[in-house]
């Protein structure tokens, strides 16, 4: 916990959703919250760095993840020395009405 007069220190980040199950062509926005050691938190979605381990499966543009091809990859979200990894599972789009048809 921060002493009186000191700024709180970043303690962890939380990413929502905590895992992604998507079909090819779908997109999903991530929300990123930074938690401080004084039990406060802040939305840092617009400032966080979001990167995909395998862009051919899923790529990140800002806070949006796009499913490109069938497979699995990890999405790493980082901010102020804190990081969190989210798994992304991309399935083929079977045309079964699972979208805006």
From TrEMBL:
SMART domains: BID_2. Residues 46-67, 75-88 have a biased composition (Polar residues). Pfam families: Big_2. Residues 38-101 are annotated as: Disordered. Coiled coil: none annotated. Residues 9-89 form the BIG2 domain. InterPro entries: Big_2 (IPR003343), Invasin/intimin_cell_adhesion (IPR008964). This is Ig-like domain (Group 2).
């Amino acid at each position: 916990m921060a002493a009186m007069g000191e700024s709180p220190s970043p303690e962890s980040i939380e990413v929502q959703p905590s895992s992604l199950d998507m079909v090819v062509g779908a997109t999903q926005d991530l929300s990123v919250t930074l938690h401080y050691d004084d039990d406060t938190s802040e939305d840092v979605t617009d400032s966080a760095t979001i990167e995909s381990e395998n862009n051919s499966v899923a790529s990140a543009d800002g806070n949006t993840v796009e499913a490109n091809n069938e497979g699995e990859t990890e999405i790493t979200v980082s901010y102020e020395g804190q990081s969190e990894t989210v798994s992304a599972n991309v399935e083929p789009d079977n045309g079964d009405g699972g979208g805006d048809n």
